Amino acid sequence: MEGLPIPTFRRSMNDRRTRAWRFNLLCEIAVCCTLLAPVPLQAAVTDFSIPAGPLSDALAHFSRITGQTVLYDPRLVSGLEAPPVSGEFSREDAIAHLLQNAALVAERQGASWLIVSRRDSPPEPATGNAPSTAAGVEEVLVKGIPAAYQQSSLQKKYHSNRHQDFLQTADIQRLPAANIAEAITRSAGISVVRDRGEALFISMRGLPTQFNQVTLNGNALASSENVRTSEQYGRRFHYNLLPAELVSAVALSKSASAADTAGAIGGQIDLQTHRPLDMGASGVSTRVAGSASQLAGETSPRISAVGNWVNSDSSLGLSLITAYSQRSLRQDRVLNFRWLESEDGTLSPGGIRPTLEREESQRLGISTALQWQSGNGIALDVDLFGVKRHSDYQEFSYSADYDIDQLVPGSLQWRGDALIGGDTQTGSVQIGRESAGLTDSLYHGSVSLSRETDEWKVTGALAISRARSYNSDPIRRTRLRRDGDVAFQFWYPKSGEGALPTVTYHNVSLNDPEDFPGRRLEWRYINAQDGKNTLKLAASRTLDDGPLERVEFGAEWQFFSRDYQRRDRMISDGIEGAFFPDEYFLALPVDDFLHSVQAHLPAQWLVPDEERFWQLADPGYLTDTAQSSADRMNSYNVAENNRALFVRSDMRLERWRGELGLRYLQGSRHARGHWPDESMQVLPLTVTASEDRLLPSLNLSFAPARDQLLRFSAARVVNRPDLQDLAPRLTLNSGDTLTAVGGNPELKMVVGNQFDFAWEWYLPADGLFSISVFHTTLDGFIQTDTRDIDIGGQTYELTSRSNGGSARINGLEMEYRERFSQLPSPWDGLGIRANISLTDSNARYRAGDQYVEDTLADVAPRTANAGIWFESAAVTVNVDYGWRDQILKQVGSFNQAAQNSEPFGNLDARISVALGRDISLFAEGSNLTGAAERESIAGGEFAGYSYYGRTFTLGVDARF
Hints:
Helix content: under 10%
Distance between the termini: 59 Å
Shape: globular
Number of domains: 2
Strand content: over 45%
CATH topology of the largest domain: Maltoporin, Chain A
Number of helices: 12
Radius of gyration: 30 Å
């Protein structure tokens, strides 16, 4: 069969490591950090000529001479005058000279300067470069672009009473980031789960992705849901929905506070949007770029704009930010349908399915904010945020399926206890095509009003968040299958050998329609809607005497609902057993499938022409909205009503400071769904439950020196079960193996105790060296249970969830970053950053009447990031490599072997060249090494391969 037309692709909006090894590694890192400590050198000088005048004008003059941005709040410099500066000076001395008559200091932030009040500046070690007032040098005032923030990331970290990390706009834009999670992942203790190369979920401090919590400007966010397959992600926030351009700052809280919305054990991530008075000055900035995916072979646009207006006295401001992007994705995969473990301990692989995935997506995000601050302590913040993402998804696949008991005698090949090869005369092959339109939307609005006096501050906030995920085009699967008489040979390599499994068919051609009769057509529509309403009231009082600085108390009410509706249709009449002529098939849309790896697998196969096959289906049957029994069992509604009271106090005594708090949490929920009785009659079921908890927290810090902090924190925390696990639902999946997934409305919250100790050394020029250790225990850990059940006379393998597990996590984080400002110009813009996280976990899983101990699933035992940057007036270069260790993806249980995600590293780079004061050209590259993601089972046998290639971006930044 030759000359097949290419299918049209729709595009529309529509073995745990030893402790000795770890100790040696930590010693090596410590030695490296010591060797890289700054060495005092003569600072570079610049010829300045800045006249006396308003401080704002002088700072602008300084910025033009140096090519460096100066960031500040306009209110800080309003009405201030700067002396002249003339002559050759270091930049540090020049800007200090300009500020000598003001209670302000300038702090170096990479290639920028941040102007803050002296009382807001954290203590820093002496640099030996005190500002000079040599005779003959005039004083000069420097002005730059008004700052979005009054404190840098490290200043915020220093002043926080809790263990927190911060990212500012410059940190977010430093390297390529298709979404905000890809910027966050370069922080210590953070790893991500990727989907088609893009970060989808975040893991913090060695806990699975569902254990952290995301807020937007401090308020709970609704979550979208997976509508590509039947797998559900529950409360986990989908970061591929959120453009990095809409986020101005991120706060990563690694210790808890009584004022936090309860629900996070791994940590809390607060995403902060752009606000006009924080940005400071009126203006517009834009970014226009094009991204090319090497594997997809297409270029896609990416456009964003930030507009800001502030009135003359900086009391009223309005901002509007928008971001639009398109993305073409392709992923070449080889999937394995799980390895099975027999009673004698031998392992055998399931079927093989090579798969080509293609996706065209478009994303539009808009954020606007209004801020008003009166002269008598009243402040109003209004934030509106919306984002929508649409994807057209296509999947093309074939399979090689066999029964181990029917393999040809004498053909079986073994490697240890693993079956890695054999011949069959009774195999099966399925050829399939799948398409779907996937649409996700998130809309969030909040209003906050506060009144502050000398002693009191009262705040009220209301937030409404809505998310929806649905199939804008229903999922359509077209299946053909040759069953029971296919002769083929297969062989599996080791996962680390860089090769893929081999399949050789003996009596069929994957390109001959006469070899493959129809099986069935499958149709599915999913509509998932999330809603979160939050009301917060809080009051705090400042205390003048004693160790207590401030006392705060408040209340929070949150209503949350998830409505999940699913309809399935299956068509076999006129399809099953029928053979179809050539015109019902197309050619595979690519001619280089799996070209990047050593593979002995067919790279071309039949592609069903969807339009022709689906003309055989009755449209009325597909559009009938009446729910079948299976539809009712798949659909559910969960509503939660959570109330909380809290009290906390900030403390300070000489070198000590911190906070102590207590939160009382009371929640109730109603889970509604359908469940079959013994006669398979599907009946409605509603389950009501409630829980309450007292959650104490303590955060302390001690300053042994002016530039150092010791931190300690302890807290009791909780994490709520995923929504799909709480629902009374039962999903029956048809396939070669009959499986079912059921909910458990009796699940309770997971309770954790977490402890953290950290040492932080703040280096000159915005540098940091820190070490932290943490310990977390989990009670009532939610685990997966698998058992056989009889449903309607057939045996299904049922997977459900229970509170049968317990776990503990120990971890260590190290971080080092420094800019070598002592080097002569231009090398004073050179800097490095590195962090490493080591995690040791142990979980006790219940397996029937026994318990199994293993590492915690979805936890990377080691993650590391290393980067180097260079910043000057004309050129900025950033290179970063992120790596994570092997992750346990599926705990071995029932008759299935444990499955792992192999170690993975990602190299990204960005270079920006200034074409003028307000315009620059930049180029970015992601996954520059062309790394592929692989999966394996215990012993290193192959279990999966996914490759999505490199991505390159070229664009322009402009500011007006």
